[in-house]
Amino acid sequence: MQTGNVRWMSLLLIVVLLVAGCAAPVAPPAGETAAQQPAAPEGVVTLEFWGGWTGPDANTMQAIVDRYNAEHPNVRVNLSMQAWSPLFDAFIAASSAGSAPDILAMHPQELAQFVHLGLILPLDDILANSEVIKPENYLENAWEGNKVDGKLYGVPLDLHMHGLFYNKAAFEKAGVPVPPSTPPLNREEFMEMAKRLTIDANGKSAAEEGFDANNIVQYAINAHTNHHAFFQWWSLYNQLGGQLISEDGKSCAMDLDKAAQAWQFLQDLVYVHKVAPQGQTDYPRDFLDGRTAMLVDGPWRIPQLEQAAAESGFQWGATQYPNIFGGEFAVWGSGHNFTLPSKADPNKQAAAVAFLEWMAANSAEWAKSGQLPAFKAILESEEFQQMEGRAPFIASMPYEKLFPATPKYNEIFASNAPTPMMVMAQRIMLEAADPAAEVKTACEAISAILATP
Asked: Does residue 287 come out as left (phi exceeding 0), alpha (psi in the -120 to 50 range) or beta?
């Protein structure tokens, strides 16, 4: 799940300098410490693998690693997991102390900052002889998204992006046909559905005369107020063809009119059309409890929906994120990848590459976490293609738009700090601030960040 924006970038140099003078080894980031793990038998290569999975997908990844260990008695992979923010804190500290993990997972948009710090290795030469990890075996945008300045720094594992989940029972009760999984809904189709699915206490919809907007019992859709708000904005802004950072990476290149137009659409769902609640926090729970009929979320939500279907008979479906502005379709997206830290033991590098090759060829198990494998043989397999709810996300993969790669990524995008993107999102969605004013303020702040050495 895409929840790993980190909080440390503004204090990064302080952390590095403080830890650089520390001779004590840094403990693994989560789970068992090195002292708690039993020593590997003599002759067995031990690989330290760090990742930020903390939801149900953590159990899936652990099961995959356990299988690898069982099948490869000469290698032991120790998987350590915690939330992405403290994971990267620990990685910075461990690298400074010379005890970096052998493999570190992250997201493509985070690569540039670690490249800038010299903490991860370029992979082109390391993987030059691999028969598995090569561009023709991967979805093109997944492979290209892991490059910085033309060099490969990450091995793609998966992609993910926003889609639109819907409650089939709510649609049936409102007499609204369920949407096809593809192509995306247009603005008119989406708004008609949204109004008919917003119901007041008297049973009237927002499309009917006499609708009571002050007494709504079912909203059509959730309204994000966290980082997923600017993820949605990014989809809409890219549907308008917007750009965020200049080609030279030194200033904000936001088209203020288009940026405001994208935010205005999201804000109006709450404050004008009244089809989405204001100040919402638990989006999945509201969807499962029937407070909202639709949910904007990623494919990582699928296992929870499958569980709800099995336990309570909850009927759900999925379709692509709407194409609101009618131009070329675009949707926010990200992914997970694997990197090789520069401060890891070089004698273990061949074993790490072999593990990553095995992961690629065996990533079908990872697909059960809801994520979309980037390895073509798995992505195109009949087994994966027939998994429930995946079709709209698969169809969206070529249109996924990543945030721009910049060494200042976390100073601009971090969700657990007052970054320009987070402040802009919360001012617009929680406080009903003027989108035109907020995008101008955010762009000025972004330019100031990018201009700082």
From this structure: alpha
Q: 56, exposed or middle or buried, with CB in 10 Å at 0-12, 13-18, 19+?
A: middle
CB 355 within 8 A of CB 362: no
Tell me the C-alpha to C-alpha distance, in Å, between residue 341 and each of 157, 287, 433.
17, 40, 43
* CA pair distance 154, 107, nearest whole angstrom: 9
Cis status, amide bond into 73, omega within 30 of 0: no
Which domains are delineated in the chain?
9-161+333-401 (3.40.190.10), 163-332+407-451 (3.40.190.10)
At residue 260's C-alpha, the angle toward residues 256 and 261, to 5°, is 115
Residue among 337, 294, 284 at smallest CA distance from 318: 294
Residue 7 has pLDDT above 60, yes or no: no
**CA 435 vs CA 244, 264, 332, 423: distances in Å:** 16, 6, 20, 12
Given this model, what pLDDT does residue 197 score?
Answer: 98
Residue 161 CA: distances (Å) to CA of 53, 95, 154, 200: 17, 31, 19, 32
Cα dist. 36→30, 100, 286 in Å?
A: 12, 18, 41
For the purposes of burial, counting CB atoms within 10 Å of the CB of 106, is it exposed (0-12), middle (13-18) or buried (19 or more)? Answer: buried
Structure tokens at 332: 């926010």
Residue 249 CA, distance from chain mean position = 22
Instruction: Work out the number of other CB atoms within 10 angstroms of the CB of residue 43.
Output: 7
% residues pLDDT > 70 (the chain): 91
pLDDT attached to residue 317: 98
To 5 degrees, how large is the angle CA 59–CA 2–CA 69? 30
Per-residue pLDDT of 360-409, as tens digits, reads 999 999 999 999 999 999 999 999 999 999 999 999 999 999 999 899 99
- DSSP secondary structure of 144-190: HTTEETTEE--EEEEEEE-EEEEEHHHHHHHTPPPPPSSS--BHHHH
